[in-house]
Amino acid sequence: MGLMIKTQFGLGVVSIPQVFDSLGIVPGIICVIAIAAVTTWSNYVIGTFKLNHPEVYSIDDAGNLMFGRVGREILGFAVCIYWIFACGSGLLSTSIALNAVSAHGTCTAVFVAVAAIASFSVGSIQTLGKIKWTAWAGVVTVLVAVLITTIAVPLQGRPEAASDIENWESDYKIVGTPSFVKALTAVASTIFAYAGTPGKFSSFNRCASWPFLTPCPGFFPIAAEMRDPSQYTRSLIGCQLVVTSIYLSIGTVIYIYCGSYVSSPALGSAGTLIKKISYGIALPGLVVSTVMVLHFSSKYLFVRILRGSVHLSSNSFKHWATWLGCTFAITTSSYLIASGIPIFQELVSLIGALLGTFMSFQPMGCMWLYDNWKAGREKPTFRWGFLSAWNILIIVAGTFIMIAGTYASVVNIVASSKAASGSSAWSCADNSNS
């Protein structure tokens, strides 16, 4: 269960208060619980699919089994793109933390570049698997930083954004009235918060005998390597309950005491001093998360390029040129994303809509149908009919949110960049005060 929590918990927690601001507390809580339920089912399907097909090690393996070579390539490409965007969100979060700690010591575009250079330098170390303990440290620092903010917000009396308002009172909403665009982006942000586990599959677990290749987080590897697979479901439910409880408690407290003045990310909500402390504590975790995602995505490309070649495990020039080329390409792509969309909530909602749904909804619905549709049609039961309808609904809902949510996120990004207080691409404006 600990590995599952480590894989699931991340940057999504600091976007939940903003989701509540868009939807209102009650619809926001319902949205979080609904997404938690769907992703719990999706991750459960991963476990059963792995038990039914021991030869499947990754999401692209599952795609190959269900849809052939086309399925492998589409799902493998989607995972890689998801990683790149996740790395971009990590670079952006790191730039926000550097802005907060240094009181906007320099241009934000410079901080994004610094984060990219640091991530490239560390992420290019091929023996990163030996310091996997840093991932645990990263989770702890982010959680501690969020808890400090959550405790400080009520004590502070008012959020940072309302510091100049006399007789301020929180304007939190029990039920919000968001537009279609705002509602969809809020749902997409919630999906991002839960998309960590199914999105982080590994295509190189079978290469783990090579010391440079280490398994990455994900529920396929966890299901594959559990000593007692019967404990998978219990661990999954425990993980989802813990993560959902954290999301709901932190999101509710921060939003109630901040209202519409809640910051995004939420670490900036409790005043200048607490903001510096929270971001200072979270900074190592943000860097570690970015480095890990950069490393995994680079390794995916690296293995795909050199698979079957003697250069995959040799110490040759081609080996190192390919490896550094992959890490540089991923870093550059992530840097362009972080600089081109320098607004945290908008970037998170775009990732959740465009890629989070495709990692957490449609493939898992297809997996269940692949294993159960044919046999169930021969002797249909109420349970089979209900679960068939449920999984078809997941596929349809995921596709709708992916298309409509991506549109809504793009609309929000364009509107935010045009706003007087917005941040444009490659902007020097302080992005820690949003």
UniProtKB/TrEMBL annotation:
InterPro entries: AA_transpt_TM. Keywords: Membrane, Transmembrane, Transmembrane helix. One of its GO terms (cellular component) is membrane. Pfam families: Aa_trans (PF01490). Its main location: membrane. It is a multi-pass membrane protein. One of its GO terms (molecular function) is L-amino acid transmembrane transporter activity. The chain crosses the membrane at residues 25-46, 74-97, 103-123, 135-155, 175-196, 236-257, 277-302, 323-344, 350-370, 382-408. This is Amino acid transporter transmembrane domain-containing protein. It comes from Penicillium olsonii. The lineage of its organism: Eukaryota, Fungi, Dikarya, Ascomycota, Pezizomycotina.
